[in-house]
Design goal:
This protein has one helix and 26 strands. The protein has about 300 residues and is mainly beta. A hairpin with a 7-residue loop joins strand 4 and strand 5. The N terminus is likely disordered.
Length: about 300
Amino acid sequence: MTTSTVAAALARTLQCLPFVVGAASCGGDDTVSPTGPVLVTRSPILFTSGRSGDFDIYIMEADGSGARPVTRTAGIDQSADWSPDGFKLAFMSKRDGDFDVYTIYADGKGLRQLTTGSGSDGFPRWSPDGSRLLFTSEIQGTLELFVMNADGTSPVRLTKDVGENSGGAWSPDGSRIAFVSTRNGSAEIYTMRADGTDPVRLTNNNVQEGSRVVWSPDGSRIAFHAATLSGDYDIYVIDANGANVTRLTQNAARDRFPTWTPDGRIAFTTDRDGDDEVYVMNSDGTGLVRLTNSAAPDVLDSWQR
């Protein structure tokens, strides 16, 4: 696989806690629902958008308002993830040739490049304690999972299998990592311990599972996207032990890149209305709400935990 092919594969694939309306909050119009308190999420969303002409990282509020850029570069910035404390984000950028992992403060200051080299590095994900970053790296023409300190030091390779291993995500307690692997032919979802041992296969669907897997806030389920036989993509959830695979969307479009909200809903990217936009729904697939409406593609990255 060439470097350009790997880069293409990589490319495909302030802070208020949740509060109860009617109780003390971070501000806004807190109206008590007639049916009782309603859990509302006010955590900012990170997404990648082409609305500036290039692909940059943006931040917006939980209702889709207040969209504003964090990065502004002639290169491609994408796949951002919030640090647990909400002050920094890690992301992948092609501003200097190959994709590499960077960090930056949420106000756009303090840019720092963490990875270098001739291969592509991307899809960074913070560990729950904020001390480490999980990421995907090109090694001899294939994709493998690595972990490094949050300052970019001491990278350690976690996967060494035939096939590609990518799209890793930490469990909420940091003990396990979910990821996508082609080690047995088709792209399927696995989990492993945080040190790379004890791999467990969760899916066996003979369809191409997506490049992003995400744990629910309580660690009991994993959301992912998968290709259907007709070539569409839909959002699914599965129990963390591999049981109860449930399809949440059934649309003749590409529903991709799911992310859990702190209150247990699922946000995702879809082109069902013409181009990529960000939507959110309940964890059973109901209550669909559109958050972005731009002439340029808007692709969901992460929701502040």
